Amino acid sequence: MKTIILATDFSDSSKDAVRYGYAMACQIKANVVLCNAMIVPAEIPQPVLVNWPEQEFHELITDSKSELDKLKTELEATVIPAAFKPKLLCVSEAGSVVDVVKGLTTGDANSLIVLGTHKGGFLSRLLTGNHADILIDATTRPLMIVRPGTVFKPAKKIAFATEFNNLEMDLKTIYQLIELAKLWNAEILLTHVAGDRQNTASLEKKLADCLVDLSNKADYPHIYYRLISNSNIEEGLAWLCEHGQVDLLAMAHRSRNLFAEIFGSSHTKKMAGLSEVPLLVFPVINN
Q1: Which end of the chain, C or N, has fewer beta carbons within 10 A?
Q2: pLDDT attached to residue 128
Q3: Which domain holds residue 279?
């Protein structure tokens, strides 16, 4: 991981995520891009945007850059002498969070995006917009979603949760996860939540057969498997995060069509609001 992109709207929750991401960058020796996407009121359509008063727009830019500089100064003050100090670039651009972040990740395959979640429940999400949900669908790079108040610590155990419907696809994600786990020498816990253990017997045998092969090919022996008995996937994963001594929850996400979203959001999006530990989302890119 060479670059960590920290997205902030200067809210307290987003600043918590920025501090988390910067501490991680110091620990894994990655550079940092600190960015603010300035969305003009109500994400107004392009014809109205053309008429946005130039002086007010200039003031928005100036205020954004000033706040980023303050945050940069705060972050760099936390680096102890002789420790790795990330190269930190501040970026302030007009546009949606998705567009700004996508522009920053284009051409950089070794980047990670860190984003905070808002406090406040449904009304707060309605007023502020749900940037996490939008980025989960739109990102082409790994995305880490951090709850307010979370303090960084190197992960010792990472749970990778999946239904294992497509083992070949899961293996591609697991190999990506291994590269991050190696930085902390963390255990990887392959996790499957199911209500009927009988239906998972064949899956467990299949996974047992591939675990040794996976560990050998990746040259990483710290990979295990755990079945959680629960008819509700989110409840099972929430229990694991709370009681399973897990430091990080990882999931793979494939964007779904509008019809699917209307009748129920993805497990990944639900866990973004439920997980007590940071959620690492790996996008599944359709070929």
Answers
A1: C
A2: 37
A3: 157-283
Rounded average pLDDT over 85-104: 90
| Residue range 243-255: mean pLDDT, rounded | 90
pTM confidence score = 0.85
Contacts of 206 (CB under 8 A, 6+ apart): 167
| Buried-exposed string 103-112: b where 16+ CB fall within 10 A, e elsewhere | ebbeeeeebb
232: buried, middle or exposed (CB in 10 Å: 19+, 13-18, 0-12)? exposed
- pLDDT value at residue 231: 87
Give domain status of residue 151, yes or no.
no
| 191 contacts 161 by C-beta, under 8 angstroms | yes
> What's the angle, vertex CA 45, arms to CA 39 and CA 51, rounded to 5?
85
The answer as to whether 152 is a domain residue is no
Of the residues 117, 146, 175, the one at which a domain ends: 146
Cβ atoms within 10 Å, residue 72: 17
Amino acid 52: pLDDT: 54
pLDDT score of 124: 36
Question: With bands split at pLDDT 50, 70 and 90, how would you rate the model's confidence at 142?
Answer: very high
| Separation CA 14–CA 262 (nearest Å) | 27
CA distance 42 to 129: 10
Alpha-carbon distance of 226 to 222, in angstroms, equals 13
- Cα distances from 30 to residues 4, 143, 153, 171, 180, in angstroms, run 7, 15, 16, 25, 12
Number of independent structural domains in the chain: 2
For the purposes of burial, counting CB atoms within 10 Å of the CB of 143, is it exposed (0-12), middle (13-18) or buried (19 or more)? buried
Residue closest to 163 by CA, chosen among 189, 213, 200, 212:
200
- pLDDT tens string 144-198: 999 999 999 999 999 999 887 777 788 889 999 999 999 999 999 999 888 765 5
